[in-house]
Structure formats: structure tokens, C-alpha cells
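Q: Could you predict the 3D structure of Glutamate-1-semialdehyde 2,1-aminomutase?
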Amino acid sequence: MLYKRSSQLFAEAEKVIPGGVNSPVRAFKAVGGAPIFVHSAKGAYLYDEDGNRLIDYINSWGPMILGHAFEPVVQAVIEKAKLGTSFGMPTELETQIAALAVSMVPNIDKIRFVNSGTEACMSAVRLARGFTKKDKIIKFAGCYHGHSDSFLIQAGSGAITFGSPNSPGVTAGTAKDTLLATYNDLDNVSALIEANKDEIAAIIVEPVAGNMGCIPPNKGFLEGLRQLCTDNGILLIFDEVMTGFRLARGGVQELFGVDADIVCFGKVIGGGLPVGAFAAREEIMNLLAPLGPVYQAGTLSGNPLAMAAGLAMLQTLDNDRAIFQRLADKTAYLHEGIEKVLKANNVVFTINRIGSMISVHFDAAPVVDLKSAGKGDNDTFKKFFHGLLQEGIYIAPSAYETWFITDALSYEDLDFTIQAIDKVSKTF
Ligand SMILES: *Cc1c(COP(=O)(O)O)cnc(C)c1O
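A: Sure. Here are the predicted C-alpha cells for Glutamate-1-semialdehyde 2,1-aminomutase:
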């Protein structure tokens, strides 16, 4: 396949946009080459500016769980757009999507909508600090919670890919309030709490990590965090921006039966439009302005087009209860297929999978945290990535990313992918 026009478009973009992209993970820095410019997408496929068709395993980094240009979402946006695109005044639609989200997710009474996952996590931490009247937070190395200053401390995927785990521009004053823990290591978290007694407002965690490849929590890890938080007056924040409405109707809280105090959403909840949200029980949410003193706002928050897309998405997921099992079955099928061909071709690898999230790591050791995720062989990954691109398969251009399986992917698409991986891995 040729990617000639994409390369030309990238050269033009580089002149006027830093690095030619509006979000660094889109660049092909870790794998080399020019990013693919998309013309359109439908179902499981992307159509690029050179006229190539690509099977998409990124799916806008998670939101398109039903596939691209899903008809009810597209229709909802078109109909709403005719009625005006933004008012800065309340609409009935906001209550409808809020009520539906609250009914789907366990353990939350109220939800507030924002414009991105970053905003959701940033606001959740402010709220936790306001509620507990404490300053520090614990985050895990390799977990990504958006690009707000307090989170850019060993922040996963994009930040690792670009070798700047601690970004310039984050002040020492901000960084000192973010304590860094090791994923899946409860003893480490206990020790941090002990050393910072009565100073920690919140532990924020991706309850299934997805930004250092896919790393499910070890047995007892989330339960242990819950207990430590309860024992020490700390709020537990589940960042379900990636996992919410993807791993189960009620997200990881439902899947593992562990309650968080505040939950953050993004990606799927917006149906492909810019949406984030954070939610909690009433006593916490009522601290937000205008009811309480914790300030949080947004000109375009609850935007009617975004809410219409999100509502159509959540309604579809709510009405089709079999979808999460169907996605998990497809992902398991892909897992088995990839495992078989990589083994046959004597490739050293580890595959992590949960629900519709899967990642392939080119190292034999179990991948359980940032350190083990970093051991994968990047030269092999580069060959893998570019080989698959030539076969018309698009995976994330970084070894630190999860693949997202969508309902639009057929078993023929999966078989085609497995065959392509067989072919490509013979060239390693
Ligand atoms: C994508 C992501 C974010 C950030 O969301 P944006 O909409 O990109 O700001 C936060 N947390 C997690 C777990 C994510 O995967």
C-alpha cells in the first residue's frame, strides 16, 4: 500500500501545527514514518487520503466501540445541529444523558459533564481535595489521566513514547503534591500513605490500566486500594475514561464489584464527540458550584451535539446487554489467533487482555506495571507496526497502547488480521 498523499499532507501540516499533529500520540515518532491522514471511516474501516482501506484497531483511541459513523449517533448529531449548536443554557438532553449514565453505573448519584477526559480527571482531583481538605494525591507510574499538570508525572503512553515522563512547565510546587506508586503493588501504596499520614486527598487509578498497554489489576489490588482509602480517609478515584461503558455496562466498578468514591469518564460516553464527565455520590457532588464552594465550569460543557451523540451511544449500549460479552468473545478469538501464529513463528511475546482491550508485548515476562511494560522489544514492534500497515491494518503507533475491539469488526476481519500477523511475524 502507498501512503503518498498522507506524507504530502503531513509535510504541509508540519509547517503550521507543532509536529503536524494536535495530539502527540498521532505522530509516528516511536515507529518512524509519516502519520496516515484519514478521509473518512465507516464501521470497522478507515479510508485514508490515498484511497487505502484500513482495519482500525485504535478507533479514535477508544470512543468508537460500535464502529465508525454509527448511524443512530450520526443521525442524532445531524438532527440536533439543525436546532442550534450551543446555547450556554440548560437543555433537557443533559438531564436525559445524566439520568441514563447514573442508572447504568453503580454507586453514583450525580454526574457533571465536561469536554474531555483531562478535564474530568482534573476536576475530580479538585473535588476530592475540596471534600477531604487535604492536598496530596497518589497516582501510579504508567497511568494516564490527561495532560493536566498534576498528572504529568510518569504519565503513560504518549509521555513515555516521547521520553519526557516529567514535562517541562510542570512546577516543582505542583509535582510535590503528586506521589508516585507502582501499579499492582499494594505494599508500595501502604508505605506512601504511612509516610504522608493525613495528607492524602485521593488515590487516582486506571482500574484496568490501558495506557502502558493493557494491564488488568492483580487479584485483590482494587479491593486493597478500596480498603486503604476507607481506613485512611482518602477518596478513591477510578479513572474510567477508557474502561467506562466499555468493559461492562457499569464499567470496572461493576466488573470487579469494587466501589470508587469518584468516577471519571470520557471516550465512549461522548460517542466520538468531545465529552468527559465525573460522577460520585450526592454528598461529594453537592460540593460543586453552584451548590458548594468547589469551582468547576465550561462554556461548551453539556454541548447539545456532544450530548446527543453520547445519549445515542449510551442508549444503544444500555439496550444491547449482550454487547460486552460479544466484544469479549471477539477479543478472545483474536488473542488465540495471534498467540497461535506468533508461537508458530518463534516470536517472544506476552498478550494481555480483558474484555475488549488487548495488547501485544514483545517480551516473555508478565506485563504487570510500567517497568515490565517497558521491557518489550521496540525494534520488533516497529516491524510489526509497519508490516501490518502494509497489510491494511492500523494499530496504535506505539508499543504502549491498547487495541480496542469494536462491535463493527467481523470474524472475517479478525481472521484477516491473524493471517497478516502470521505473514508479518515471519519477517522479524
Ligand atoms: C484518554 C484518557 C484520558 C484523557 O482523556 P482526553 O479526552 O484525551 O483528555 C484520561 N484518562 C484515561 C484513562 C484515558 O485513557
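Q: Anything worth pointing out?
A: The mean pLDDT is 95.
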